[in-house]
Amino acid sequence: MKPYRSLLDVLVFALVVSACAPAQTRVADTPKPAATAVPTLVPTAATTPEWFDMELTDAQTGEVFTMNDYAGKVVLVETMAIWCPNCIVQANEVRNLHELLGNPDDLISVSLDVDFNEDEASLKEYASGYGFDWHFSVAPLLVARALGNLYSAQYLNPPLSPMLIIDREGNVHQLEYGRKDAVTLQRIVEPYLAE
After folding, report:
1. Beta strands 107-113 and 135-138: pairing type?
2. Residue 48's domain is classified under what CATH number?
């Protein structure tokens, strides 16, 4: 009976702690108009962040790439996990975004799996099973650590649908947390594509 009591105590403690956590975290403390979701600019040095040079492997093709390979293009980065239902919905909106924009060559999408229990084979099956045709990569530990340290630990929490835009100059812009439909993404991305 004692082991069950200990297990029950742990479960109750976890429930209390999770109930006390904030439901949503805003990226910036400054209020933004609801109609125009403008991303927050994260100041960068004269050079790009170190994680831009770290190699990623596309789970579907085996291609090795870095963020710096897409210098001069607009890159939409989404952190995700296979088990995350919000991630599937958000990825479908990314697909719809590409269709709305006519699949421009200068918009690159990268989905980074930040769950260290998932591997490339599972990610390949996931991405191809849903018909997603952009880069899907298991984020190496150093990339995940950089995302968490530079932008926010919330980027390692896939259900929040965290996303970044890397503009043509290599500046990183954080999008607000939460799912974004294709039209909202289009409104956010188009100014960067027009640069």
Report:
1. parallel
2. 3.40.30.10
pTM: 0.74
In a domain, 5, yes or no: no
Q: What is the span of the domain harbouring residue 76?
A: 26-194
CA angle 107, 24, 90 (to 5 degrees): 30
Angle between the N-to-C axes of helices 85-100 and 182-194, in degrees from 0 to 180, rounded to the nearest 10: 50
Q: pLDDT tens track of the chain, all 195 residues? A: 565 555 556 544 444 444 444 444 344 443 344 444 445 444 444 578 899 999 999 999 999 999 999 999 999 999 999 999 999 999 999 999 999 999 999 999 999 999 999 999 999 999 999 999 999 999 999 999 999 888 888 888 889 999 999 999 999 999 999 999 999 999 999 999 998
For the chain, the domain total comes to: 1
Residue 16 in domain: no
